[in-house]
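Hey everyone, long-time lurker, first post.

I ran two proteins through the pipeline my lab uses and got sequence/structure pairs for each. Pasting them in order. The first:
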Amino acid sequence: MKRIVSMLLVMIISFTGCSSNSKKVQTSETETAETAKTTEVSDSDEKVITVMISADLNPELGDPTTSGTDFSLYEMIYEPLVKYGENGEYVPALAESWDVSSDGTEYTFYLRKDVKFSDGTNFNADSVIYSAQKWDAKSFSSPMTGIEKIDDYTIKITFEDNCYPCLTELTYPRPYRIAAESAYDKNGEFTMMIGTGEWMVESYIPEEETVLVPNPYYYGEAPNVDKIIIKKVEDGQSRVMALQSQEADISLASIPEDSMSVIENEANLDILKAEGTMGFFLMFNEKNSILQDVNVRKALNYAVDKESIVNDLLDGQGTPAIGILPQTVPYVTESNSEGYEYNIEKAKQLLSEAGYEDSDGDGFVEKDGEKLSLNLVFQSEEYSSWKSLCEYLQSEYAKIGVEINLDLKESAAYYDSIWTNRDFDMIIYRTYEDSWNPHGFLRSMFSYSDDASGICWSDETLNQYLDEVVKIQDEEERQAKYDEIFKLISDKALTVPLYYPLREYVYNTRLTNLVAAPTSYESLEWNLINIE
């Protein structure tokens, strides 16, 4: 019966663009996916992998200086000067090596001489200059003040101040990747993704699927497969059914926790697990007067049983959070991220000290006649486990007399809540990952200016610390400053850390040589994957 239901659902999925045994191929590179005529292509002898994601899938918007499509495309098509490797090590990419001046403001990069873009044009110093002219010079932790061509394969980038994260920022999936000049029209407008990476776009249907094939000019090891079809599948259960029916080979997007037992019982499916650098946490709206009381924020921390979240709700698929970032992130230590234990009585005591009591016996506390009621916003398109997690938090907070109203939003509206209209009291969010941690994430969430508040919280001392730490070159001094930063975030209960998820990729066992890449943005070492 399970197989019959699965196949019926897959039939529905196929009509919504989840998968198909044929591909739509553009008849002209200049035609858009909507207007292109299509032909049926045989799969006969090709090694083809079908991958599912849940994020935006728009290669026509894949300018490396913007965020128009899923990170996986940026990683597979474009390359940086320097890559972010295991344990945060810098790894040569388009630059074979580099030097940093004694004052930390000048970076000289020595470029590879055997690189071509996927359209066959040469990569050299002029290519870097062309891309760099499109970068926002002020987007670095220290403004970029110049880029100079020393010779055909040597460039020098100058920054305003000594700032250690500048090299790390060059590893990001965007906005500092290198695209071919031919990726833009004569007016400098982006037209197509043309990079030096292992893969190139063969065809696409916006927000439905993108077909990638190997870059014939790639200088490194050639991939083992002939084609990767990336499909956007937003619904978690649809992803499960597509995997069961073998309509898809890999899901980079999360699988609903209540479906993991189904996956584990499928003989043709397995799960690749890797330790991650991301954390899930609750963000507060600092404009909410209730949450401006530190005792309320601390109470909301003490009331969360993180061990139960991981062991009972997630069946052990993660690590209970202590601080906002896991210890897989540079500068995060056990001593600077002590966090809050689960202590219901302590939470109730702190609410009482803040003036909240259950005066009418309805189970919820009030102050000045107003019930302590908070709106918790979440989405489930990207992280399917968030729905059950937020329902669990609702029940946990009821134990200390706090009413939680759940507000499930579509992904676009959810992000608008964070970045635009701020229509939440609390919202579940995730930290950034890999090379963005810790400095990029912390500055994005907590830095503020006279013109804009912090996204997560505005604290004058924390803002000062974040400005100071990026300018510290000495490693021990930098660690000491990060100790102060993480301790302040914890002591003032500026967030509610929940848990650190594992990186999990469900895949069909017909695939071999699956290896987790150093970063979640790459996901997998795509060139190593093969088919039995």
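...and the second, right after it:
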Amino acid sequence: MTRSVQTLTRLRPSVPEPAGPEPTGSGGLRGGTGGAKGEGGAEELLAAVREGRAAAVPGLLESLDASARKAALTRLRALRAEVGAGKRATPPHLPDRVRSALYVAGAGCLPASATTAVAASWLGARDLLVREEDGALALAALGDRAPEWAADPALVATRRAQGPDQDSCLHQALSGVLDARLWEAADLVGTDALPFLLATPTWSTGAIEPRVLVERLREYRDAGVEPAPTDLAQALVRVARADPSAGRAAEEAAALGTPAGRRLAARLRGEGIVGATVRFLPRDEDGAPQRWWPSDRLVVDLGEHPAVRAEFPPAFRWLGGAPEAAPRRCPHRVEGRAEWATVLPADRELLAACLLPTLAHRVEGDARGAAEPLTALVEADGPVGRAVLLALAFGLGRVDADDRLRAVDGVLVLAARGELNARRLGAELAWLVAEGSVKPNRLADAARTAAATGAYRTVWTVLEAMLPEVLAPARPVRGLGEVLAVAADCVERCGARGEVAGLDALASGRGSSQLVVQAGRLLSALRQGADQPPTETV
């Protein structure tokens, strides 16, 4: 999907987008003139919240005057009980209900002169709200505000200061960043402490254009405002360092003469950038379950950056590196997957390394949605290394067809951009298929789907690199015939030629099984080639 110059077109589908990009401090946050509807409008608004009609809430808020907004906020006490009951019953629209309620809470806490669009930007944005638990707690803090609208300081302070502990998995760390931003916004909304949020994205991936962030910091400086720590940290992590304007923006940021400006300039110059490498421990020879599945053997090494741990708030300090690297199981419920990619939109390989534990966990299980972040991952900035390729490989082998389709889309997007190393992807698939972590029938389905778009040569290049290893055993991997059928079809369509180690011996075997038949078909196609030009479309 093409990047949008408007704010979070995909990630905030329930929020009406501004007519065009906002290049200065407001970051695309525009206000309305407000209306004069009273109690009737508040009733309609709260009905929309109860029903989870999040898309309708911003428009209904715009029609309310300040007194009606505060009345709606007071009514949230009763609605909170419904949210709690709904959480136990887990209705399908609960996240939209909580998000809608946060819109109402933010609008009710604003001064009478403020606009409801600003409230939406502070508390209703998809890049802020992730987990139902924290959304409901933030709603509680806002809904219980006294007439002077002062939040519970102990609750908010505790949640703002939280960071992952030594035993936290990477997905908890990603969710912790989003939670910290929600709580910081919940504490500041309505206080006039900040004119707007620095970390509001300008791209659909969650990234921020460098010069836009410079202008936001300039407005902060001119207004004599200090950035909120978590908001500034997220903005620095989100800034698009690969953007052509990054060099000029670094000079302008340094010229601001503020600590935040100097930190931005250093970030844009590539100082203190966090890296990650991934590796897998060998399987236990006795087949012990504690080191059998890929997720039990995965090790993610984050580079050591003491400056990151010193300068960033608690929720971000894990990016400065862990004292020791070891596999960390992630067996608990996973929430907020679709939003994780917006935390690290400028560091694709690091983001992929953080997503791998979830993608690798129980690849054989029936859990759905684990591949949700793949679309945003491939659209992010940064190099495509082993972590990204492994994320795609695990996605291609997922049980759920929709997850496999997301991985196929990711492969095709990278291929179209010239960023896909198809042979390296094939090499990763080879060992995953050989050890049984990725099933051939699921890989064949994904490869067939990709080839159907016209990407015959891309698919063949991946499979060509994978086949020698999986054909080598005395007893080839079960179900490999389907993969060979897709490979043969791709070779016949793209006219590839060459040899694949082990294919000749397999094709000359006895019998009429699909494995032998398709091996012979692929061997014949490779030897014959084709006269027609390639039909590659990506």
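Reply from user beta_strand_b:
Welcome! Quick read of the second one: The chain is about 55% helix and 0% strand. Residues 113 and 372 are 40 Å apart (CA to CA).
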